[in-house]
Amino acid sequence: MPYLLKSKMWLEKDGRKVFGDGPLDILERIEKSGSLRQAAAQINMSYSQAWRLIRMLERNLGFKILLKQAGGAGGGYSSLTPEAKRLTAAYGAFRREADSALAELHQKYFM
Question: CATH for 20-110?
Answer without folding.
Answer: 1.10.10.10
